[in-house]
Amino acid sequence: MGAFQNPYAFAVVECVPRRTGSPEPQLIQVGYYSIGVTNTTRFFQRPCEPGYFCIDGIKYQCPAGTFGAGYFCPSYPSPPSISRTQNECGNSSVYCPEGTGNEPKAVTSGYYSVLTSELAVDGRNATQNDAKICPKGFYCRQGIRIRCPEGTYGDVEGLSAASCSGWCPAGYFCPFATTDYRLNPCLPGTYATKGAAVCMACPSSSQSRASVIKTFQVLPQEQVEKPPCTTHRECCFLG
C-alpha cells in the first residue's frame, strides 16, 4: 500500500495518494486532503475540518479575521475559529469591524463604539463593529458616550474630559449636553453665576435697576441703557 507497479516499467513507483491495488495515483477531491506515512506515500483522503480549507490535497488553517463584523476571529498560533459568533468582540472599549483577526481594536479616546452592521443590538455592547467621534455636547471615555455635565458645555467634537469645553460663563445657564452656551442667556430678573445649570430668579423684594436710577439719578444715560446685569445676585438690586 502506498505504491503501484506499472506493468510496462521495471520499477516500483510511489504515488500520491492511492488505495490498495490502485493502478495509478488518484486526484484528491476539492475540499479534501490526503494522509499517509510520508508526503509521497499518501493512501487516503479526508474532508477538510471546520476552521480549515484544502487546496491540492493540502490542509491549511483559515486565516485570522475571516468572519463578519462584531466578532474577532483568531487563527495561528491559536486554534482556528469555527463559528461566526465564537468570540464576541468584548465591551464598549473595543470594536470589531469585518475582518478583525486575533484581537479586537481599542476605541480611541474621544470616540465611542457603535453597532452599524445587520446584527441585532444585544444590549451589552459586546458586538460593536465601528467607532465614531464624540459629538458636540458629549465626552467619550472607554468607548462610552456621556453627556456633558450640568454647568458645562461642549462646543467641539472629540472631547474626552468630563469638564468638556469648560464651565458655563456667568449670565448663562447650561443644562446637560449643552453645545453652545450663547443660546441660553439669563433673562432680566434672573441671574446665573459661573457653572450654573439654571438661571435663578431674583427675590421679589429686590428693586430693579431702573427704579434705583430713577430715584437717585446717579448714573449717566449711556450706563442706564446698557444690557441688564445677570451675572450675580447683586444684579437683582442694581440691575
Produce the secondary structure layout.
Elements: E1 3-5, E2 12-14, E3 32-36, E4 42-47, E5 52-55, E6 58-61, E7 94-95, E8 105-106, E9 111-114, E10 130-133, E11 138-141, E12 144-147, E13 152-153, E14 166-167, E15 190-191, E16 200-201, H1 209-216, H2 221-224, H3 235-238
Antiparallel strand pairs: 1-2, 3-4, 5-6, 7-8, 9-10, 11-12, 13-14, 15-16
Describe this structure in words.
This protein is mainly β. Among the domains are: 3-61, no CATH class; 64-131, no CATH class. Helices cover 7% and strands 22% of the residues. The chain has three helices and 16 strands. The protein has helices spanning 209-216, 221-224, 235-238, and strands spanning 3-5, 12-14, 32-36, 42-47, 52-55, 58-61, 94-95, 105-106, 111-114, 130-133, 138-141, 144-147, 152-153, 166-167, 190-191, 200-201. The strands form eight sheets. A two-stranded antiparallel ribbon has the order 1-2. The protein has a two-stranded antiparallel sheet with strand order 3-4. A hairpin with a 2-residue loop joins strand 5 (52-55) and strand 6. The N and C termini lie far apart (107 Å).
